[in-house]
Amino acid sequence: MGWIEILGFVTGAACVWLAARENVWNFPVGIVYTGLFLVLFASTGLYANAGLQVVYLVLNGLGWYWWLRGGRDNGVLTVRRTPRAAWVVGVVAVVVLTAVLTVTLRDVSAAPFGDSLTTSLSLVAQLMMGRKWLGSWAVWIVTDVLLVGLYLSQGLYLTAALYVLFIGLCVQGVVRWRRALAAAQTPRVPAAVVA
Protein backbone atom coordinates (compact mmCIF):
# COMPACT_ATOMS: atom_id res chain seq x y z
CA MET A 1 0.00 0.00 0.00
CA GLY A 2 1.50 3.27 -1.12
CA TRP A 3 0.59 6.92 -1.02
CA ILE A 4 -1.35 6.69 -4.31
CA GLU A 5 -3.67 4.07 -2.84
CA ILE A 6 -4.10 6.13 0.36
CA LEU A 7 -4.92 9.34 -1.54
CA GLY A 8 -7.20 7.33 -3.82
CA PHE A 9 -9.01 6.02 -0.74
CA VAL A 10 -9.57 9.52 0.64
CA THR A 11 -10.65 11.15 -2.64
CA GLY A 12 -12.77 8.14 -3.63
CA ALA A 13 -14.67 8.17 -0.35
CA ALA A 14 -15.20 11.94 -0.66
CA CYS A 15 -16.40 11.56 -4.26
CA VAL A 16 -19.08 8.96 -3.47
CA TRP A 17 -20.11 10.79 -0.28
CA LEU A 18 -20.65 13.97 -2.33
CA ALA A 19 -22.53 12.10 -5.07
CA ALA A 20 -24.88 10.53 -2.52
CA ARG A 21 -25.71 14.07 -1.38
CA GLU A 22 -26.28 15.27 -4.95
CA ASN A 23 -23.33 17.64 -4.58
CA VAL A 24 -21.84 18.58 -7.95
CA TRP A 25 -18.36 18.76 -6.37
CA ASN A 26 -18.28 14.96 -6.63
CA PHE A 27 -17.13 15.45 -10.23
CA PRO A 28 -13.95 17.53 -9.67
CA VAL A 29 -13.04 15.30 -6.71
CA GLY A 30 -13.79 12.33 -8.97
CA ILE A 31 -11.30 13.63 -11.54
CA VAL A 32 -8.52 13.60 -8.91
CA TYR A 33 -9.60 10.17 -7.66
CA THR A 34 -9.68 8.84 -11.21
CA GLY A 35 -6.17 10.05 -11.98
CA LEU A 36 -4.80 8.37 -8.86
CA PHE A 37 -6.51 5.07 -9.61
CA LEU A 38 -5.35 5.15 -13.22
CA VAL A 39 -1.78 4.98 -11.93
CA LEU A 40 -2.63 2.39 -9.24
CA PHE A 41 -4.46 -0.04 -11.53
CA ALA A 42 -1.89 0.23 -14.33
CA SER A 43 0.85 -0.62 -11.84
CA THR A 44 -1.01 -3.74 -10.60
CA GLY A 45 -1.91 -5.18 -14.02
CA LEU A 46 -5.65 -4.42 -13.92
CA TYR A 47 -5.55 -2.87 -17.37
CA ALA A 48 -9.28 -2.70 -18.06
CA ASN A 49 -9.82 -0.92 -14.75
CA ALA A 50 -6.90 1.38 -15.62
CA GLY A 51 -8.38 2.13 -19.04
CA LEU A 52 -11.72 2.77 -17.40
CA GLN A 53 -10.15 5.60 -15.42
CA VAL A 54 -9.37 7.39 -18.70
CA VAL A 55 -13.03 7.08 -19.68
CA TYR A 56 -14.00 8.29 -16.20
CA LEU A 57 -12.02 11.47 -16.74
CA VAL A 58 -14.27 12.23 -19.71
CA LEU A 59 -17.45 11.03 -17.95
CA ASN A 60 -16.70 13.16 -14.88
CA GLY A 61 -16.46 16.23 -17.08
CA LEU A 62 -19.67 15.29 -18.90
CA GLY A 63 -21.50 14.48 -15.66
CA TRP A 64 -20.37 17.78 -14.19
CA TYR A 65 -21.89 19.59 -17.18
CA TRP A 66 -25.11 17.50 -17.12
CA TRP A 67 -25.70 18.10 -13.41
CA LEU A 68 -25.30 21.85 -13.86
CA ARG A 69 -26.92 22.34 -17.29
CA GLY A 70 -28.72 19.10 -18.21
CA GLY A 71 -32.05 19.88 -16.62
CA ARG A 72 -35.08 21.71 -17.91
CA ASP A 73 -34.19 24.98 -19.67
CA ASN A 74 -30.46 24.26 -19.22
CA GLY A 75 -30.96 24.22 -15.47
CA VAL A 76 -29.82 21.86 -12.74
CA LEU A 77 -30.54 18.18 -13.40
CA THR A 78 -32.87 16.45 -10.94
CA VAL A 79 -33.05 12.81 -9.85
CA ARG A 80 -35.19 10.68 -12.16
CA ARG A 81 -36.19 7.07 -12.50
CA THR A 82 -34.05 5.04 -14.88
CA PRO A 83 -35.83 4.63 -18.23
CA ARG A 84 -36.65 0.99 -19.10
CA ALA A 85 -34.79 1.26 -22.38
CA ALA A 86 -31.65 2.31 -20.48
CA TRP A 87 -31.74 -0.96 -18.51
CA VAL A 88 -31.91 -3.00 -21.73
CA VAL A 89 -29.12 -1.00 -23.38
CA GLY A 90 -27.06 -1.23 -20.19
CA VAL A 91 -27.33 -5.03 -19.96
CA VAL A 92 -26.44 -5.47 -23.63
CA ALA A 93 -23.51 -3.06 -23.28
CA VAL A 94 -22.17 -4.93 -20.22
CA VAL A 95 -22.38 -8.33 -21.96
CA VAL A 96 -20.76 -7.16 -25.20
CA LEU A 97 -18.09 -5.01 -23.57
CA THR A 98 -17.21 -7.73 -21.05
CA ALA A 99 -16.78 -10.30 -23.83
CA VAL A 100 -14.64 -7.99 -25.97
CA LEU A 101 -12.46 -6.87 -23.06
CA THR A 102 -12.02 -10.41 -21.70
CA VAL A 103 -10.72 -11.62 -25.07
CA THR A 104 -8.58 -8.51 -25.53
CA LEU A 105 -7.03 -8.70 -22.06
CA ARG A 106 -6.76 -12.48 -21.61
CA ASP A 107 -2.97 -12.47 -21.95
CA VAL A 108 -2.19 -9.22 -20.13
CA SER A 109 -4.67 -8.70 -17.32
CA ALA A 110 -4.14 -10.20 -13.88
CA ALA A 111 -7.84 -11.20 -13.86
CA PRO A 112 -9.26 -10.86 -17.40
CA PHE A 113 -12.92 -11.69 -16.76
CA GLY A 114 -13.26 -9.95 -13.39
CA ASP A 115 -11.36 -6.93 -14.66
CA SER A 116 -13.56 -6.75 -17.76
CA LEU A 117 -16.90 -7.34 -16.04
CA THR A 118 -16.33 -4.75 -13.33
CA THR A 119 -15.06 -2.28 -15.91
CA SER A 120 -18.18 -2.74 -18.04
CA LEU A 121 -20.53 -2.43 -15.07
CA SER A 122 -18.68 0.65 -13.82
CA LEU A 123 -18.97 2.35 -17.17
CA VAL A 124 -22.74 1.80 -17.29
CA ALA A 125 -23.14 2.92 -13.65
CA GLN A 126 -21.14 6.11 -14.23
CA LEU A 127 -23.17 7.03 -17.32
CA MET A 128 -26.39 6.43 -15.39
CA MET A 129 -25.15 8.54 -12.49
CA GLY A 130 -24.24 11.35 -14.87
CA ARG A 131 -27.88 11.41 -15.96
CA LYS A 132 -29.00 11.30 -12.27
CA TRP A 133 -30.93 8.08 -12.78
CA LEU A 134 -31.85 6.40 -9.50
CA GLY A 135 -30.92 2.95 -10.85
CA SER A 136 -27.27 3.96 -11.03
CA TRP A 137 -26.94 3.12 -7.32
CA ALA A 138 -28.11 -0.48 -7.84
CA VAL A 139 -25.53 -0.97 -10.58
CA TRP A 140 -22.85 0.60 -8.37
CA ILE A 141 -23.70 -1.71 -5.46
CA VAL A 142 -23.40 -4.85 -7.63
CA THR A 143 -20.17 -3.52 -9.14
CA ASP A 144 -18.65 -2.62 -5.77
CA VAL A 145 -19.40 -6.05 -4.30
CA LEU A 146 -17.58 -7.66 -7.25
CA LEU A 147 -14.72 -5.17 -6.98
CA VAL A 148 -14.12 -5.98 -3.31
CA GLY A 149 -13.40 -9.59 -4.31
CA LEU A 150 -11.26 -8.55 -7.28
CA TYR A 151 -9.13 -6.14 -5.27
CA LEU A 152 -8.67 -8.62 -2.42
CA SER A 153 -7.45 -11.18 -4.96
CA GLN A 154 -4.83 -8.68 -6.16
CA GLY A 155 -3.61 -7.70 -2.68
CA LEU A 156 -5.16 -4.22 -2.84
CA TYR A 157 -6.53 -4.43 0.70
CA LEU A 158 -7.04 -0.71 1.33
CA THR A 159 -8.78 -0.35 -2.02
CA ALA A 160 -11.01 -3.34 -1.17
CA ALA A 161 -11.86 -1.64 2.14
CA LEU A 162 -12.68 1.54 0.22
CA TYR A 163 -15.15 -0.38 -1.91
CA VAL A 164 -16.80 -1.84 1.20
CA LEU A 165 -17.22 1.78 2.32
CA PHE A 166 -18.57 2.61 -1.15
CA ILE A 167 -21.29 -0.03 -0.72
CA GLY A 168 -22.49 1.72 2.43
CA LEU A 169 -22.34 5.12 0.74
CA CYS A 170 -24.28 3.71 -2.22
CA VAL A 171 -27.04 2.56 0.13
CA GLN A 172 -27.14 6.12 1.52
CA GLY A 173 -27.27 7.39 -2.06
CA VAL A 174 -30.30 5.23 -2.83
CA VAL A 175 -32.12 6.50 0.25
CA ARG A 176 -31.29 10.17 -0.38
CA TRP A 177 -32.05 10.05 -4.12
CA ARG A 178 -35.37 8.28 -3.49
CA ARG A 179 -36.31 11.06 -1.09
CA ALA A 180 -35.30 13.68 -3.65
CA LEU A 181 -37.34 11.92 -6.34
CA ALA A 182 -40.38 11.64 -4.05
CA ALA A 183 -40.09 15.32 -3.08
CA ALA A 184 -39.89 16.34 -6.75
CA GLN A 185 -42.98 14.29 -7.58
CA THR A 186 -45.07 15.56 -4.66
CA PRO A 187 -47.43 18.25 -5.89
CA ARG A 188 -46.86 21.55 -4.19
CA VAL A 189 -49.92 22.92 -2.47
CA PRO A 190 -50.04 26.71 -2.50
CA ALA A 191 -50.11 28.32 0.90
CA ALA A 192 -53.54 29.44 1.99
CA VAL A 193 -54.25 33.07 1.46
CA VAL A 194 -55.01 34.77 4.74
CA ALA A 195 -57.47 37.62 4.38
Question: What would your notes on this structure say?
Answer:
With 195 residues, the protein is an all-alpha fold. It contains seven helices and no strands. It is globular, with a radius of gyration of 18 Å.
Q: Which characteristics define this entry?
A:
195 residues, 0% strand, globular
Shape: globular
Number of helices: 7
Percent range for β-strand residues: under 5%
Radius of gyration (CA) equals 18 Å
Q: How many beta strands in the DSSP annotation?
A: 0
Largest sheet: none
Which regions are unreliable across 5 or more consecutive residues at pLDDT < 50?
none
Could you report the average pLDDT, rounded to the nearest whole number? 90
**Sequence of secondary-structure elements:** HHHHHHH
Distance between the termini: 69 Å
| Proportion in helices | over 70%
Structural class: mainly alpha
